[in-house]
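Handout, tutorial session.
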Amino acid sequence: MHGTLSVMNATSPLFAFVISILWLRFAFSWIQLVGLMIGFTGLIVFVGYESLQFSWIPFICCLLGAFMYGACSNYLYKLSHIDPAYLATMTLIVGTMMFLPFSVYEGGVSFDLPRKVWISILLLGFLCTGLAYVAFVILIRRMGPVGASSVLFIVPVAGMVWANIFLNESITTSMLSGCFLILLGVGMTNFFGPELKEDKL
């Protein structure tokens, strides 16, 4: 199921591509579309066909999340005249406030945690989420919603490298083949995409 969810999550650049054309009136680019499909195929090769499973509720939820992610990328591009740090901060605050009631409802919330856990939470929250999201907003401004969203394809590649370095996990031929397709697709998406509009409003 994890392989399926990672693949479905990676449909967000495809949604961003369609939304950018319908909403922001970006020029259609066949090379960019082919690049997205190559990157998506590379992700499937990377996770392996055998890991793909299907279940309706997770499938629909993940697909809806990918759609919202693609829409958010376009909306952030439309607002890219605003300071990136402010945009990223407000986005994360609103997301946290919307998620908080569900966390309380599920129960199990505890603040009595070891120091190492708190340090990990702070690092994940500030560095891996906060600063990373500011960088993502800047990326949207410079590369557009489609180009910035396509970096999602690179996440499993980075995960593979770190897992090999820190966890001594093996790298398979299918992973390397998938990485090649992913990098090729991301390159085509970003280097051959339409020129960005100066007026975003």
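The second record follows below. Compare its token runs with those of the first.
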Amino acid sequence: QLEIAKLLIKNGANVNAKTQNHGKDDLTPMHFAVFANTPEFIELLASHGALINERESTEGYTPLHFAALYGNKNIIQALIDKGQDIEDVDNNGRTALFLAARQCTEAEDDSRIEIIKYLIDKLKADVTKKDNNNNAVLFPAANNCPGKVVEFIIEQYIKIFELENFINHKNNDGMDA
């Protein structure tokens, strides 16, 4: 696929072309690079001016949203390295972290936790962010994921709020740290 993409680009293919499906989808080659699970494809497209954060028209997903949904850490990192914002939201205000937390099965518990941990710890995704319906990331996880993923996300909330309470704790004289 990569060699074909190189040939097409060499012959003038539009690296930002969008699919046409009666006003739906509007997927770009960058979206297809994510689907192909090929960081080199992302690099090739970006080096030829492909936009990294174009949204498809159905849900407003950027390539990063799809990468998180499919749980590929290498693709996520390749997109971040090219300038994709970890906090970009879809049409419903959901970040990549939301999508990573909503797409899991018991069989992939550990790998999904690894992706969520990567988004939070390495890429500093905001675990407290809420979507347009005021749902926290825990909501899609609790509705779609087995217990281990939910437990992990709850642990992240506890860390944040314990730290906030610790920092904002006032002594008997009304002073805080």
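Points raised in discussion: The chain has a mean pLDDT of 87.
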